[in-house]
Design brief:
282 residues, D-Maltodextrin-Binding Protein, domain 2, 2 domains, 8-stranded mixed β-sheet, 15 strands, 29% helix, binds 2,6-di-O-phosphono-beta-D-fructofuranose
Length: 282
């Protein structure tokens, strides 16, 4: 069964969300999402847009959104389950930095081992879309009315960028030593605070490390397995990189007992992931 109708629905959502980001008010809704973050009206609107587009695709059995507590069945006879973060990094919109949407597509169950594809959209100066499916990471840029395919994305063995997430004050000492070690090897800091553009930048510039560790205030990290971590782990592995947790386990082997569960996570090319393992003793 082809995933093309799902990719097409994501493309339609991307245009509608891009339009909402450009034209709608940036005010807060009077509610919090399932993880306790205050929701912007735009978060809710983006969620509604995606749910509406997915409801038209009969191959989709169920959807789970970062903005909602529970998964929702769309078509009982459908095959695929999609977990998505409709507008990741939305707190950056007021300063006009890039944000994104993230989608993990699963065959039959929301388990990392059942992931068959992942897709993300970058709303930046340009509208871009990346798919990881059937062993390749494809990159599209929207111009002249259509998504134009670029070169396939592959990570080099070793990159140059370092994107360290979380509050430094709360980092464990070995994590700080690892981050400092990369800087002393000449790595450059590239961190906007938006997971989508930060990971996208590392992918397109050939490699590096994005880390979001467990910290004293957030021992299990901040990033959510189902909505952020698994989809990007799938992209990084497909591009020839690696994605692990603080114990050196592949993120795509981790269980997920609650849709909003988080995990410490490290995404990078092989060289930088080896450095993480060395620093963490795993
Ligand atoms: P945001 O809270 O703005 O939605 O998913 C949450 C996220 O952004 C990621 O996009 C980003 O990588 C991370 O939080 C940034 O967190 P820190 O500010 O703690 O580094």
């Amino acid at each position: 069964m082809t995933l093309q109708p799902i990719f097409d629905a994501i493309e339609r959502s991307a245009h509608r969300i891009r339009d909402a980001i450009t034209n709608e008010d940036l005010c807060y809704a009077d509610q919090c999402n399932a993880t306790g973050d205050t929701q912007l009206k735009l978060d809710i609107q983006s969620d509604l847009i995606i749910a509406e587009e997915f409801s038209k695709i009969t191959a989709i059995k169920a959807i789970a959104s970062e903005e909602k507590e529970e998964a929702e069945t769309l078509h009982a006879e459908g095959r695929y389950m999609i977990a998505y973060d409709p507008l990741d990094g939305s707190s950056l919109i007021d300063v006009n930095l890039s944000v994104g949407s993230i989608f993990g597509i699963y065959d039959g169950a929301f388990e990392a081992s059942k992931m068959v594809a992942s897709v993300y959209v970058v709303y930046g100066p340009r509208l871009e879309l990346v798919t990881a499916y059937k062993g390749s990471v494809r990159h599209f840029i929207f111009r002249h009315g259509r998504f134009d395919e670029q070169e396939t994305i592959t990570l080099k063995e070793k990159g140059k960028l370092n994107a360290p997430g979380g509050t430094q004050q709360h980092w464990p000492a070995h994590h700080k030593a690892m981050v400092d070690g990369l800087f002393s090897e000449g790595y450059r800091l590239r961190y906007s605070g938006g997971m989508v553009p930060d990971l996208h930048q590392i992918l397109l510039k050939g490699g590096g490390l994005f880390s979001y560790p467990g910290t004293t205030d957030k021992p299990e990290g901040k990033l959510r397995k189902l909505f952020e971590v698994f989809p990007f782990a799938f992209v990084y592995e497909t591009a020839g990189g690696e994605a692990i947790n603080h114990e050196g386990r592949r993120l795509l082997e981790l269980p997920c007992n609650d849709p909003h569960e988080t995990t410490p996570c490290f995404f990078g090319s092989k060289y930088e992931i080896a450095k993480v393992k060395e620093a963490y003793g795993v």
